[in-house]
Predict the 3D structure of the following.
Amino acid sequence: MLLRGIARPLLAGVFISGGIAELRDPEGHAKAVHPVVDRVAELVPMEEPPSNVTLVRVDAGVKISAGLMLALRPQVTRFTGVPSRPSRLSRPTSTGW
């Protein structure tokens, strides 16, 4: 349990810092993902594909959101009283198993 308490914020920090770095310099990251995005755009039929900068910004938002959810998950469940699924399954109910 102690390891999980330390590992979650550390892993969340990687997601959050990566997302912030992408938001600070979306053009630089767009140049890096340009070959992959162009290849995927050829395979997926669409009228006008979104710009690489837009895709990088969306990816940054997803990374920051995922990092925040990963870091804040224990606090949210503690304050809302909603247990996680494994803990619900491990407790016997009053009607039995």
